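input
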Amino acid sequence: MSNALDPFGVFSSALRAQLAWVMHPVELSRALNGLSSDLLALQTHVMRRALGMPSEDVVTPHPDDARFADAAWTDSASWDIIKEWYLAFTHRLQDMAFETPGLSEKEQRRAAFWLRKWLNAVAPTNFFWLNPTAIERAVTSGGESLRQGWLNFQRDAKAKNIQMVDPEAFSVGKDLATTPGKVVFRNRMLELLHYTPTTEKVQAMPIVIVTPWINKFYILDLNSRKSLVKYLTDQGFSVFITSWKNPDATMHDVRFDDYLTEGVSEVVRVAREFCQVPQVHLVGYCIGGTLVSTYMAWANRRYGEKEMPVADWTLFTTLTDFSNPGDIDVFIDEVCIDALEKMMAQQGYLDGAQMASSFRLLRSNSLIWHYWVNSYLLGEALPPFDVLFWNVDSTRMPQAMHSYYLREMYLHNNLIKRDHLTIAGEPIDLGRITQPLYAVTAFDDHIAPWKQCYRIRKYVNVATPVRFVLSTSGHILGIVNPPVNPPKRAYWAGEPEHNEHWERWQARTEKKPGSWWADWCEWLRQRGGEMVAAYPAANRKFPALADAPGTYVLEK
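output
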């Protein structure tokens, strides 16, 4: 199949896998024998259940698979048999995809990925007459759930999307992003917010947070209970945060260099001048963390150790080594990137909705089919969930910057290669970074896998002090992780040696209940200098340009 017709390998990967099995008859015979054994065990299970006899499931759903949580899938012989047939074929076919002979590991992963998407789509739970929960809901509601499901379907058809959250559920600046503060700096790239202090004295050294421009900044300021920003100000820190401009076609030629020079470099300068201090704590989240890592190497080269404007740095779920970036790897090769570049050339940017669809595909059961079932088959209303609201409040990616990022980081993995990249006139070498690092990762992160994030320890200078943290949960909730009682989550925190394997580090590091936020604050305090009178939200040199959350975050 032509690459132009199928650049992401949706159909061609399956075709290549089938041809590979045909070309390897011995391996195919062995795989079919395994499938026959499964089917024989399944036939025995079906017979015992049909006769009303007890029988252990041949294949059990994954603990995280909520599709078969209804007791009917276990208690009823008929529903149990449907479930077991589906799971047996699903598990065996996926195993075969990963074991396809004659294909590279990446081709195997891509074939398995798209096969898994198809298997998820045809799950019995996605069809009314094969979903016991939907049938029972229709009966008990007198058909009301079906009527409401049809209305929900019409709503989503009009929106051209399977919606996850009510788009009118929240208002940014009223329900979300409500921590008081001021916009103290603005350029074509970003607005810089400085938050109103909540303590009489603060640490002299401010915190500057570089958020990902792939999303809007307020994930770190959802509401008073979940806001990392508010938590930090309550702990006596002065907090600055970036709110990136949502680019349009006029910004198509904005480069990665511009995000560094007009973005990170400028906000570090402004924070230092605002607080009249020589250095700041610098923080980067996700793609913002990759930019911060690049900036740290750039600044060490540009300024040297004596004039370095950053005392220490923190990374939240950040990749610097892109050799194994997780499931998103199926979208990363020359053909895929060429297709994306052609799309961006027509628009001048990559639309946020297009990117959001790709990320939803990575977890299609929880981010697509869950809402298909709940909205259409069960007739449920969309939940007013703040994290989901933020998730769909998407942003665009400038053509030049995104093309560069995909090629240099993901495709060629050049950030970890000494002096392979030249950014804003400086060759980039992570090994030049000597400032202390606090790196936070998340156990269930499918966007920045924690074991891959751990490799930052290998690339920074051998003498660089590193505290590495592994939080439970995923890419978002591993970071948006406020202290609560009783604790919902847990974390590991410790200092890995320069070439220590992640498995050894985790085995010797104590797992602690609760949030890592307090651990991080203690780490920052040790480096924050003296306590001083709290800085005002704005001052004479940097007057308020707008109230928080600013104007850029409101742009659609």
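quick obs: The mean pLDDT is 93.
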